[in-house]
Amino acid sequence: MAERRNGGWWRPGHGGLMLTTWWVAVVAATVVMATPQMALAQIQNSLPPPCDSEIYCHGELLKTVQMAELHNDSKYFVDMPLKNSPNDTLRAFQELMDRTQNNPSKEDVSNFVPRTLRNRGASLYRGSPTTGRLSEYP
């Protein structure tokens, strides 16, 4: 059985192990802090991405554009509609990556984006109150 001596705990018969209150608190805090963080990391690694778009939600294209920091607002890119199908856009991106040995410059990315995506808000439609017809903004 441990007994209290000189501000710590002394456990006879175990090599004279003395644990201070401070040391016990540090070990307890580490266990309490590490466990939720490890559990959260496990949960996050097992979850699917928030959406299935390899362009707007996850994947190399999104990572490459965001890392190039083309815009001050990190959400700007995801508000830009595609000019072509997702497959065509991903194919064009793969061609860019192949041409640059998977290391495109900021200029390469800055040229790629306007070729494959429309300006932010370009998918808005305007309507005619007299005809009721909708047309896409250019």
Automatic annotation (TrEMBL):
* GO molecular-function terms, A-Z: alpha,alpha-trehalase activity
**Catalytic activities:** alpha,alpha-trehalose + H2O = alpha-D-glucose + beta-D-glucose
At the top level of its lineage, which domain of life is listed?
Answer: Eukaryota
Q: What is this protein called?
A: Trehalase
Q: What class of enzyme is it?
A: hydrolase
InterPro entries in alphabetical order? 6-hairpin_glycosidase_sf, 6hp_glycosidase-like_sf, Glyco_hydro_37
Q: Name one GO biological process term.
A: trehalose catabolic process
Residues folding into a coiled coil are none
Q: Which family does it belong to?
A: Belongs to the glycosyl hydrolase 37 family.
Which EC numbers characterise this protein's activity in its record? 3.2.1.28
